[in-house]
Specification:
The structure is a single chain. The chain is of the alpha+beta class. It is built from 6 helices and 4 strands. It has 2 domains: about 90 residues, no CATH class; about 30 residues, no CATH class. A hairpin with a 6-residue loop joins β3 and β4. The protein starts with 5 loop residues before the first strand and ends with a helix.
Length: about 170
């Protein structure tokens, strides 16, 4: 939440747009110091405002555009990653009864929908598949690697190419 409704600014050439916003700013000059409502600042303004953290209540000076990004992303202002984490944990606790809630059945369902297998990218399954296919869970097909390199570069090892020799010098 923004602490002050107004901000003091020293007018520079970029702020001359204020003349078109309101009649009372028609007679301003560069270098004048004005108090203007924060609503008159553009959403991407780099002016520093004072805001209160919605989680811990600390006040913090922050650029207005950063404040707007924070509100847009999280729907509240958090002064730090620590406060944002606390908010996330409290939301999970309210919703699911556990601050570290992770829904394994939903994860498996999503993996099944996306990849056709609920254990997709499971290292133990990868080792099992290699053992079934090749008889060894640590199998690497060196012949296929050599053939690919030979087709691509004309030699059986990339370290024998001119590109590699010139790039390492």
């Amino acid at each position: 939440m923004i602490v002050n409704n107004e901000i003091e600014i020293k007018i520079n050439s970029r702020d001359f747009i204020l003349k078109t916003i309101d009649e009372k700013y028609n007679f301003i000059n560069i270098g004048d110091i004005l108090k203007i409502p924060i609503e008159y600042l553009s959403k991407n303004s780099h002016r520093i405002i004072c805001a209160t953290c919605d989680i811990c209540g600390k006040t913090k000076n922050i650029k207005y555009y950063k404040y707007n990004e924070n509100i847009k992303k999280y729907n509240y202002f958090s002064c730090s990653v620590k406060c944002a984490t606390e908010k996330r944990k409290s939301t999970k606790k309210e919703k699911y009864g556990d601050e570290n809630y992770n829904n394994p059945s939903k994860n498996k369902l999503t993996k099944k929908e996306k990849y056709g297998d609920e254990n997709y990218n499971n290292p133990s399954k990868n080792k099992l598949t290699k053992k079934e296919k090749y008889g060894d869970e640590n199998y690497i097909n060196l012949d296929k690697m050599r053939q690919t390199t030979l087709n691509k570069y004309g030699v059986d090892s990339y370290s024998k190419t001119i590109e590699w020799k010139t790039s390492t010098k």
